[in-house]
Amino acid sequence: MPPNPALAETTTTGTAAPRKLTRSIGVTGGTLLTLSCVTPASSLFVLVPPLFADLGTGTALAIALAVLLCVGIAFCYSELGTLVPSAGGEYAMVTTVLNRFAGWITFVLSFIVILVVPPIIAIGVAGYLAPLVHLDPSLAGAAVMLASTVMGLANLRSNAWITGVFLAIELIAVVVVSVLGFAHADRSPAVLVRPSLDGVSGVGLVTVIAGLAVALFVVQGFSTAVYLAEEMREPHRTVSRTVLWTLGISALVILVPVVAITLADTGSLGDVDLTALVVSWSGSTLGTVVSLCIAAAIGNAVIVMVIQNSRVLYASGRDRAWPDPVNRALSVVSSRFGSPWVATLVVGLSEAVLCFVPVDTLSGVTGVAVVALYLAIALTVLGARRAAHRGPHVWRMPGWPVVPVVVVLALGYVLVEQTALDLGITAAVLVVSGAYWLFYLRRRADRWLVTVPG
């Protein structure tokens, strides 16, 4: 057994270690892939409308507060991501710095997020294909998931540039919406800091803060850069740069159109239809083009999510979280494409099935899981500067430990403001996961050995 039972470079069963992922991307490729996961256009058209319904003109304020909070969260991810450059992402960081049980619970939280977010996004594609063909949202979402799974089996470097092309199309759609929104501005900028639903009914600060869980969901993809750490060249340099660049660009790309829509002549924001708005502002032809761009953006985002999420499942198999046959299957890497093909299929097919679950059932739990996951990372980084974790190549955040403490306090408040149902469902999943730890993983010293490749 290795000196630290939470860490291992090889298996402890005498078998050969799984084939490593190929280091083939740098900051540019990693940023393109991660930006595509944030997918500002699909976030704008799929995730933001429910925020408008709840927060009205306070939507931009909620997203701005979420971005500000995410700066501190990005610092936490950047420091831990360079300290522990593993495809396991959050769970590898927490296991290495804290302990195996904390790492296991973090894995479960991250797995809730990575399983549920892609179907929520994919289901939205049907609405944007409507100018050409009317499809059942669940069937369309499942088809997008299956096609993305096939794409996810390809070489990562190739996927980085394919998704880069789709990202450019997506950004064009965002620019069009922003320009049209500002061109039809009818509200005073004061409404951005004086939230209301209809110009009369005010929205309180407590409501805006409660909406931060969904607002964090809108911009949360920046953190997924850490899942690509084992495929980045010089990860001790590239991981932090990719995380911070992605957050900065995505914040700009999401906030600008949200402000434009808020200030525009849209009538009531409570029931705003963004596609219909574009048509009313520009005509049906441009509206159709924008809708198809959004559909392409959704497909692009789902491809990247499948790629990144499969790496987490691959890492869990390599780190021996499951019975041996499952571990061996999940840690198989294609000799042709360098991708974990079994893990990719498991993730993609599972998410295709989840497209048939009502979106409302999934969204609230995802918001709670995202906040809890960020809370775990902020708590972990407080212990990352002990002597055992000091390294010459680790990126160090400015303002430590004040920044993570502020993040912990803010996220803790946001978490307790969520609904009892969403908190209860998430807690139930964690209880079941805790039982798996207690009766299976804890009793086996050769399980859950987190690997951090050199």
Automatic annotation (TrEMBL):
Listed Pfam families: AA_permease_2
**Where is this protein localized, as stated in its record?**
Cell membrane
A GO molecular function assigned to this protein is: transmembrane transporter activity
Protein name (record): APC family permease
Q: Which species does the entry assign this protein to?
A: Amycolatopsis carbonis
Ordered alphabetically, the record's keywords are: Cell membrane, Membrane, Transmembrane, Transmembrane helix
Recorded topology in the membrane: Multi-pass membrane protein
Query: Is this entry keyworded Transmembrane helix?
Result: yes
* InterPro entries per the UniProt record, alphabetical: AA/rel_permease1 (IPR002293), APC_superfamily (IPR050367)
Instruction: Provide one Gene Ontology cellular component.
Output: plasma membrane
Determine if 4Fe-4S is one of this entry's keywords: no
What are the transmembrane regions? 25-48, 60-80, 101-129, 135-154, 161-183, 203-230, 242-264, 284-307, 341-359, 365-385, 397-415, 421-439
Q: Which domain of life is it from?
A: Bacteria
